[in-house]
Specification:
Elements: H1 4-11, E1 18-22, E2 25-26, E3 29-30, H2 32-44, E4 48-52, H3 58-61, E5 67-72, H4 83-96, E6 100-106, H5 109-122, E7 127-130, E8 132-133, E9 138-143, E10 148-153, E11 159-163, E12 179-182, E13 214-218, H6 225-239, E14 242-245, H7 247-251, E15 272-276, H8 282-288, E16 293-298, E17 311-314, H9 317-327
Parallel strand pairs: 1-4, 1-6, 4-5, 5-12, 6-11, 7-11, 13-14, 13-15, 15-16, 16-17
Antiparallel strand pairs: 2-3, 8-9, 9-10
Helix pairs in contact: 4-5, 6-9
Length: 328
């Protein structure tokens, strides 16, 4: 026989808790880093709700597998994704629904600038650049330029985290569409005094560096811009790879700074990473050492890059790279 108290306990329901993920986009396309953030959010183990500030991606977003709903917010002030506008919006949406226990963003320029502001508004400590989900409140993140991993636990009522895209596979698109809900709640005045002036983008038919499966990177050993273009571009074309560079190559003007790989550039983890004339400074290794196969070409056998390389060519890059390109 079940007592009345037992019946009440048996029939009581557990409140539903949700994870909110910001679906960052460029134009009419969802950024691959945002899809990786969805994968990380799914591993937390709670229903995942997507948030977009672009009506152009609503249809794409609704087909992402693992999302239970999409919240869409419209407004010209969000078009350029200024952190000063996004952080107050995130705060309003999170506080409008007590079910949200986690808020996840990609560890992109937008995510890195908006999440600390949101943490200040909510008075909680964000967890940056997570590479693994241990549980719904415990995560792994790199420290000391990626030379060590820290396992951190949060006791905050709302957990804020940014996700390193290279550590999680992008969420796939399915056929079934989830609900798209237009946000109708209160939006606070941001008091923003920052003005968007302009944006200069380098367009290329090559794969996007942050999500490419193959990357050919050049370093200081290439000596000049002309050699960089003459050796790196043909090899990347043959491989169907994206082009990257070390900070030394970028600072020397060999290529645009959007191609920089490393702690202060892009964090990548492709299937194949070819490092040409790169010594392997700790800041560069922090951005690419998780690559599946690393090929290093350098005439100095004592360079640090050979310590992590799977395949190493100790030779003159001016001879090896053209020969390798011709044989592909």
């Amino acid at each position: 026989m079940i007592s009345r108290a037992s019946k009440r306990l048996f029939s009581s329901s557990i409140p539903r808790l949700d994870t909110l993920v910001y679906l960052e986009s460029s134009g009419a396309k969802i950024n691959p880093a945002a899809l990786s953030s969805v994968s990380a959010a799914i591993q937390i183990g709670e229903p995942v709700v997507g948030l977009t500030t672009s009506e152009e991606i609503e249809s794409q977003a609704s087909k992402i597998e693992g999302l239970s709903k999409i919240i869409s917010v419209s407004g010209d002030q969000y078009k350029n994704k200024l952190a000063e506008e996004l952080a107050p919006l995130f705060k309003d949406i999170i506080q409008s629904d007590s079910k949200f226990t986690h808020f996840i963003v990609p560890a992109s320029a937008v995510g890195k600038s908006s999440l600390p502001r949101l943490g200040a508004l909510l008075d909680v400590q964000p967890i940056s650049d997570i590479v693994k989900v241990e549980s719904n409140n415990t995560f792994v993140r790199p420290i000391y330029a990626g030379n060590a991993l820290a396992t951190v636990k949060s006791n905050d009522s709302i957990i804020l985290a940014s996700v390193r895209a290279s550590a999680f596979a992008p969420a796939a698109a399915g056929e079934k569409q989830c609900e798209v809900e237009k946000y109708s709640g209160t939006i606070s005045d941001s008091g923003n005094r920052t003005q968007f002036v302009s944006e200069s983008l380098i367009t290329s038919e090559r794969p996007e560096l942050g999500s490419a499966g193959k990357i050919v990177s050049g370093g200081r050993g290439l000596k000049n811009k002309e050699t960089f273009e003459a050796l790196i571009e043909p090899l990347a074309t043959k491989l169907g790879a994206a082009i990257g560079a070390s900070r030394a190559a970028v600072d020397s003007g060999f290529c645009d700074n959007s191609l920089q790989v490393g702690q202060t550039g892009k964090i990548v983890a492709p299937e194949l990473y070819v490092a040409v004339g790169i010594s392997g400074a700790i800041q560069h290794l922090a951005g690419m050492k998780d690559s599946k196969t690393i090929v290093a070409i350098n005439k100095n056998p004592d360079e640090p890059i050979f310590n992590i390389a799977d395949v190493g060519f100790v030779a003159d890059l001016n001879e090896v790279v053209p020969e390798l390109t011709s044989k592909l």
